[in-house]
Amino acid sequence: MKKKTKENLKERIIDVLLELVLGVLCLAIGIGILVLLGKGIDEIDFEIAMLIGASIIIALIIIIYLVVKSIKKKKASGKDN
Question: What is the pLDDT of residue 80?
Answer without folding.
Answer: 54
